[in-house]
Amino acid sequence: MSIALEKSWLDVLADEFEKPYMKSLKSFLTEEKANHQIYPPNKLIFNAFQHTPFDKVKVVILGQDPYHNVGQAHGLSFSVPEGIAIPPSLQNMYKELSNDIDGFTIPRHGNLTKWADQGVLLLNATLTVRAHQAGSHQKKGWEQFTDEAITKLSQLREGLVFILWGAYARKKMALIDTSKHCVITSAHPSPLSAHNGFFGSKPFSKANAYLISKGKTPIDWQV
């Protein structure tokens, strides 16, 4: 596993790479790659951090695992490269955007890199997965690393928006100082739950309203 972490993130997370859990995770990934196909490719494991430096983060959208089918995962939560079918959760995010943001038109692709480059940290709790086996790399150490990333953002930055969809993501609220950050929660955009509180929750306009209230440039959600 190559550690090509963007410099500003390395400045706050360097100590994590020396801890026992990370050494154990590296050993696990080495063995996995020797015997299985792993997603995303090595160079994209830390893609969210590369596109959204620590000091540029405005919004965090937390996912759980990378997509586990061929060509889908590229290191940004909920996003897929252009040319890959738009996953159902992202389709529902686009539907909500079309109702939430004036002028938003539903794209024909699922690449959210434009969000990441504006300061939206598209962070999965687990950064790798075995092909075709959802959740296969959970509880191997990644969650400790990404929890620390969230904790550092909460501690060292102010006026961020954390968007937590679904019960799994909402547990991360314990890591966030809600006295100096905005936390937006709802049901998950998955087809299984989107109609139970995701549709109509207006997370994107709420995030922008908060950013504006803090004197920050809002996100252009059109991709």
Helix content: 25-40%
Q: What's the overall average pLDDT, rounded? A: 96
DSSP strand content = 5-15%
First-residue to last-residue Cα separation: 31 Å
* Poorly predicted tracts of residues: none
The total count of helices amounts to: 8
Q: Which structural class matches the secondary elements?
A: alpha/beta
The best one-word shape is globular
Biggest pleated-sheet summary? 4 strands, parallel
Strands in their spatial order, largest beta sheet? 3-2-5-6
Order of helices and strands: HHEHEHHEEHEHEH
Describe the structure.
The protein has 223 residues and is an alpha/beta fold. It contains eight helices and six strands. The chain has helices at residues 7-13, 20-35, 47-51, 88-100, 113-117, 142-156, 166-170, 203-213; strands at 38-39, 59-63, 120-124, 129-130, 161-165, 182-186. Strand 5 (161-165), helix 7 (166-170) and strand 6 form a beta-alpha-beta unit. The radius of gyration is 17 Å and the shape is globular. The mean pLDDT is 96.
